[in-house]
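G., the chain you wanted modeled:
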Amino acid sequence: MGDWKNVPPSWVGSDPCDKWDGITCTDSRITSITLASINLSGGISGDIGQLSELQTLDLSYNTGLTGPLTQDIGNLKKLTSLILVGCSFNGQIPSTLGSLPELSYLALNSNGFTGPIPPSIGNLTKLYWLDIADNKLSGPIPVSDGPILGLDLLVNAKHFHFGKNKLSGDIPSKLFSSKMTLKHVLFEDNQLTGTIPSTLGLVQTLEVLRLDRNLLTGDVPSNINNLTLINQLFLSNNKFDGPLPNLTGMSSLNYLDMSNNSFKPSEIPSWFSSLQSLATLMMQNTGLRGEVPVEVFSNTHIQTVVLRNNKLNGTLDLGASNTNHRRLIDMSYNLINGFTQRNGYSADLILSNNPICMETEATVKEPYCDHITESNSTYSTQPNSCIPAATCGLYQTSSPNCKCAYAYTGTLTFRAPSFSDLGNETVYTLLQSSMMLSFATNQVPVDSVALSHPTKNADDYLELTLDVFPAGDERFNRSGITRIGFMLSNQTYKPPHAFGPYFFIAHNYDYFSGGSKRKHKSMSIGVIGGVAAGGCVLVLLLVIAAIYAFHQKSRAERANIKNSPFASWDPDKGSGGRPQLKGARSFTFEELKACTNNFNTAANIGSGGYGMVYRGSLPNGQLVAIKRAQHGSTQGGLEFKTEIELLSRVHHKNLVSLVGFCFDAGEQMLVYEYIVNGTLKDSLSGRTGIRLDWMRRLKITLGAARGLHYLHELADPPIIHRDVKSTNILLDERLNAKVSDFGLSKPLGEADQTHVTTQVKGTMGYMDPEYYMTQQLNEKSDVYSFGIVMLELITARNPIEKGRYIVRQVKEAMDTGKDLYNLRELLDPILSLTTEQLQGLERYVDVALRCVQETGNRRPKMSEVVKEIENIMELVGINPNAESTSTSTSESYEGKSQDNKHPYLNDFSYSGGLLASELEAK
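Predicted structure as tokens:
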């Protein structure tokens, strides 16, 4: 209790068993601590190891709980459930967990744990639930070897949830055996390599298998077909290069996703139509070719068929029966040249970027040629035959039973739902009914629940907003909240089968009833006297200190200014609090004045909305570019703070380096390394005299992609650039790409944060349309902008030129059935136009068009873009990891006219107005 803040008010006196909320005792010994969602903060003291009778510890959904998990937790020999979901614990998972012989439920997901999985966990013979997903764990999956323990010993475990970590190495073949009883194996979004072990086919109890978003290669083992109970199988976004596996034996398979692999080209296999339980088939970019058999659509359960970006051809025939069951059929980016309609069709059909849609007349007549489907739904629970309250109090919500109340809210995340139609109200009604039944069975005081905003996130998880309303009152007490939190954190509530494994992340509940202040026992007269005497002494000391401080004031102020360059920073000027730096060098105004010859006009190399940019030379001979803000510029102050904070803590060879800064004499200046060959835009336009051949453009693409990948996935916290464009990609003396200008960048403050809601800013032509419409910025907004840069690299055209948008120009001209996709007329004339000299261009265009998809969830991550570009370079015969050795012979910025814009200026920034596509339409 002494280590925690915000403990319940009922924690009064010296006996925790005396009606303390969240504490359960047996024979005056603590056996359970369940304190979910009550805004606790602090750490877990090693003293917890003294609670020798403790069986359940649930501290979930308290984001203020942080620090490492004490090794003394291994002393809780009777502990059966350890649940710390959605907190902020960090450090390594203690190996002493392996000494808890009764532990059956271990949920450490959604924290910040690092380091390896402790092999000692293999000693937990009673463990059936192991969830360590969504942390920062690294290293291999441990298996036993002689005296060394491993996870292969957990033969009673039903759940291995390891997704969203940084686990690496092969999946050990010893991990699986016929003795295991696993139902869920979720290894998605790690860095696992090698092949799928054939021993996986021995675990015939498996129902959900997720191996997607790893680096797995080779063949999918044939005996995976023995997993007859599998209903959800995710193998997408790996590097499988063998034949398509035969899955005929998976008679229960409901959801199949093998997209974005390099399977050997093949016709659509016959087993597609033999899987009569299949509702969702995702096979985009998997090398499929030939005609699509009509039998694929004869399945009565089929809801979604996505076969985009393959080489399917011929005439598409959806058949004549059961069309009402179909929700989405996406065959875009194939070679289909005909469509047979039988009695009309009711599905959302997408045939864009097929020969059938290349003719203008077809595009005008048929909606399937210019079709955009939304992946999310506007569903929300409707009132139960009542009229919602017209007005509710502040922070109150009208429940489904039309009562105003303070709801307990959070996000339900389902890791493998078996349905893909997010607008299916029937399944949500079923989920809502099952939750209410579970609350009633467990006698939890819940009046009703509401579900809303079903969304498929970037991890292909289904997210739902959950509101739980109290029964008999307008607010919950702490006991009610902890009981609901425990039901959801320890999986007491079991959702309908269609939803699959889930986890819940709750918001803190700030509206407790019975929130009386903590009572304190009266202090004795002696104590009061002692306090009074001590107070007098304290006052005397304060007077002496004040007199001393008065005489030392000027000296302290001078020392503060010397030691803290931001001592005079004024947060009231709209630039926020003082910049928080990590090692950036502080320059005085006089130092920068000297290295620019008193900011001589000859050193001025550009100007923009932020201010002026000067070239300078430091005393050690290093050339620098100095970005000097205009006096009194609020925008300059904000950009100064943003860039200096971000660049002082990110270091990558494909990001421009911050040498230092100046906050002195009323000046705000940023000092960068000097990049001699200027912007990519200048090189593409011919202003630098650099000739960029195809190989150089691939290297530039890869370098810029690696820089953005670092910002998105390796920086801590992740950073969204927000203004990716060709003028913000610089080329050094060896034509290595460096991403620059972080004045508009935004960090994601929390590890699990998916977006930032912010005012729309950026550059027209490069801006993500989804961000423009929703004001929700995420890393996929940078991916969109990078896709525009990729198209700019091969066309040397502006994103918007003569009222035409580059994306539409490429899509209209593109013909996947022709050489170089029929894009010769759009390509930069400097590029050689033979197929041999532009090897890999088609795959390059495919990647660029994936990046500029309308919605973010259909775009790749930058890590995936990096892999694709590396693969293209290997195809061309370039080592993607080799340093460039070709030094440019073109002019540097030293001899350029002052009329040219310098790469460090953030010009043409956008804040409101028309988006590029709207401008084109007008």
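The first strand starts at residue 4 and ends at 5.

Shout if anything looks off.
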